[in-house]
Amino acid sequence: MLLLFSGSRSWEIVTIQYSLTCLSATRQLGVIPLLGVAAALTLLATFLVGRGAPHPEPAMAVTLLAFAGFLALMLLFAAAGVPDRLASLAGPAAGWLLGVALLFLYVLYGAGSRTFSFSRLAAVAAFLFLPLSLLAAAGDKPPGSWHDFLTLAFVWAAVKFGPTHWLWPYPGGRLAYIFTVVAAVDLALAGFVLLRRTKDVGYQIAWASHWTVHIVGPLLLFALIAVPLGIHIHFIAYEPRFQEWKAFVPLSVGILFFTAWPEELLFRGLLQNLASRAAASETLGWIVASVLFGFSHITNLGFPNWRYVLLASIAGLSYGWTWRKTGSIFASALVHASVDILWHFLFRTV
User: Fold this and answer.
1) Are the C-beta atoms of 277 and 142 separated by less than 8 Å?
2) Which three-class secondary structure state does DSSP give residue 27?
3) What CA–CA distance (Å, rounded) separates 261 from 266?
4) How confident is the model at residue 4 (pLDDT cuts 50, 70, 90)?
5) What tens digit of pLDDT does each residue of 284-302 get?
6) Residue 309 Cα to chain centre, angstroms
7) Is residue 134 pLDDT above 70, yes or no?
8) Which of 131, 231, 264, 290 has a beta carbon 3.0–4.6 Å from 317's, enabling a disulfide?
């Protein structure tokens, strides 16, 4: 009680103690549990390959080994203290070293799957080192420079419109896109977390008790707005697919880590973060990132799909609000994944 009446210094102590309490209340996974998650997701990827013609066992084994490497790097950065330890060991060179490691994993994939070619290798090298070079050119400029935004646009365009199936021809199917997404996340970590040392990205797999209201609340509010609006503008129709519920768990996990997680890193942890810093306004950064998130869907299901842009922009506001309140892309990814999962199982796109 005395602290409440003993001047500004005591208020600083109260603030520090409150911050430490919030930090201690956040439980973040460590290295070993996340390696276990990476192993489980690798098994899930084998399931997502499909039930087509059998693949040569050595080629598939090496492909999954390379995929596990990409995935382990993606998840290890979400472990407590890992990015800081890597940065302290190698400084900005850690980003370049990670880029080299990613290129080595691609060589391993190409050699093991017998799809290696110098043209593919050159394309992957450009995908990795052009963005890193652009970010390195930013030097000591504060976060939110044009280098940062141009790099984000480059990575997004490469994933959205790049020759995914040409780069990852074996075994084909959905695994090619997943390979691209995971490699893009690793590249973003190398460039922004290690090279540029961007702060407050929220790249963590953690949980705090006060997050529940900031996850459930925006999800419910979005549903109350988007469902009647989507039906009214003839974008969705209520049509539950009960026969597909047996795939609920693997599909939900896949959506969370291979769709929601990468997009939340790009649009909330990086774009909204950097836009807020550049504009010196959290609200403006939140709105800009949400609108750009909406426009990133304009080519989905036919161009120009303005109905998709509208609903995705509203969804972006929900995800961005959760990220602002929790400081974690894992929390906003849970909202994002929940929307996608419920849409898949309960509604049909008109």
Assistant:
1) yes
2) strand
3) 9
4) very low
5) 999 999 999 999 999 999 9
6) 20
7) yes
8) 290
Residue with tokens 């998709």: 308
Q: Model-level pTM?
A: 0.90
Preceding peptide of 304 cis, ω within 30°: yes
Report CA-CA distances (Å) from 313 to 150, 189, 286, 298: 21, 25, 11, 11
Q: Is 55 helix (H, G, I), strand (E, B) or coil?
A: coil
Handedness of CA 303, 306, 307, 312 (dihedral sign): positive
Indicate the burial class of 132 (C-beta count within 10 angstroms; 0-12, 13-18, 19 or more): buried
How many angstroms separate the CA atoms of 205 and 28, rounded? 6
CA-closest candidate to residue 274, choices 218, 330, 196, 160 = 196
CB count, 10 Å around CB of 118? 9
- Token pair listed for 332: 């906003």
Q: Report yes or no: 151 and 134 within 8 Å, Cβ to Cβ.
A: yes
Instruction: Dig out the tokens for 305 from the structure.
Output: 């799909």
Element (H, E) at 349: strand 347-349
Secondary structure (DSSP) of 216-247: HHHHHHHHHHHHHHHHHTTSEEE---GGGGGG
List pLDDT tens digits, range 169-189: 998 888 899 999 999 999 999
The token pair at 279 is: 């504009």
3-state SS of 158-196 is: HHHHCCHHHHCCCCCCHHHHHHHHHHHHHHHHHHHHHHC
Instruction: Give the position of tokens 């050699």.
Output: 111
Taking the CA atoms of residue 85, residue 86, residue 89 and residue 91 in that order, the dihedral angle to the nearest 10 degrees is -120
Rounded distance, CA 5 to CA 301, Å? 61
Percent of the chain with pLDDT over 90: 78
pLDDT at 22: 43
